[in-house]
Amino acid sequence: MAAESEAVAWLRLALAEHPAGRLVGARLALALGGPAAVFRAPAVRLRELVGSDRARDLRAAWRRVRPAAVLRRARELGQRVLTPADEGWPRRSLSALDDPPCALFVEGVDPPDEIHSGQAHPGQVSSGQDGCRADAPSVGIVGTRDATPYGLDAARGLGADLARLGLPVISGFALGVDGAAHRGAIEAGGPTWAVLGCGIDHPYPVAHLDLRDDLLAGGGGLISEHPPGAHPRKQHFPRRNRIVAALVGALVVVEAPARSGALITARFALELGREILSVPGNVGQRGRAGCHQLLRDGAGLCESAADVLVALGIDPAAGPTLPLRAEPEGEAGLLWRALDAATASDAGALCARTGLAADRVAAALVALEMAGRVRRVATGGFVRVR
Fold first, then answer.
1. 176 occurs within a structural domain
2. Domain residues for 32?
């Protein structure tokens, strides 16, 4: 942690930002010689930098916020407050933003800060605490909350494959594609980081409480620029998306409609010079229109983790073959191959396809579900998981 006075000054700037306006705290600190110097600056200088109305609002907010109390509360909850003065601050990643945050709240491991491939080779995972190579570029996986079984399987499989190669996986912790990508990385034994649109202590989304625990237990981390107690609000999520885009070397979009938060993240990534890839889908489904538009606009085609490696400048042939999970064997394998990743099948259909008796199908489905190789969907059927 930086010296207390400097940490409190950075945090005061962060807490005083307008909830819907452009972030200016870091820009002021850069222009005036540091966070503490901002509060000593003459009013006329502030007006020159941000305008009369914003200067007036900022000065009032600086007097109103209580950064020391927020810092104490974060520590009580087991969170750390990172600022640009701290060793763990991802300065390489965030320095490209026009409006970087002045502080980040973190639970778990500090976010990775490598967006270029360096000399990284696939399959060479360090034995460090977070399970990733020190020079491994992070990969973002984002997409719609209303994902199809195909999209969920693609995100989960891609997250797992990238994690096995030692690449950190970053996403936004939303339902759908985001959660599937996090889950895949965790199941593969790799760490994953989630950037939130609310305070870390806020249970959102509620359906991801178990995922949250598994993410932290797996050596990853939760990241937010919002203080403890902050509720999820509509204007928080575009800001979250810019941080996701900044922290990654490549961004993969899996299932996104034409108007989507994932496309906002892709726009940020494009502005920051990050690699953008898109997973193709069924041309007849509206939920894929955003992905196909990205491909028309020049995004890279992503059919596997190897495509991500190539986009990052890593030769897939330079390391071991991609360590995909082997297909299940025996009756479980017969049943698994009879399933589809996109369209759910019920037990009756599987009996007809495989010739297995109902009790054997039921037993195999239980074994496959426990192994994470099939997933039960809301309709009661099953889809295949890689």
1. yes
2. 4-72
Mean pLDDT computed over 67-93: 94
On whether both 255 and 297 belong to a single domain, the answer is yes
Same domain, 142 and 252: yes
Q: What is the CATH number of the domain that holds 301?
A: 3.40.50.450
Reported as a single tens digit per residue, the pLDDT across 19-28 is 656 789 999 9
The continuous run of DSSP H or E covering 8 comes out as helix 4-15
Distance in angstroms (rounded) separating the CA atoms of residues 297 and 293: 6
Residues 271 and 313 in one domain: yes
CB 60 within 8 A of CB 214: no
- What b/e string do you get for 306-340 counting C-beta neighbours within 10 Å, with b at 16 or more? bbbbbbbebebeebeebeebeebeeebebbbebbe
The total number of residues written for the chain in this structure: 386
Provide the H-helix boundaries in 193-329: 209-217, 236-247, 261-271, 289-296, 305-311
Which one-letter DSSP state was computed for residue 136?
A: P
Give residues with Cβ within 8 angstroms of 5, minimum separation 6: 36
As a whole number of angstroms, the distance between CA 261 and CA 267 comes to: 10
- Rounded to two decimals, what is the model's pTM? 0.81
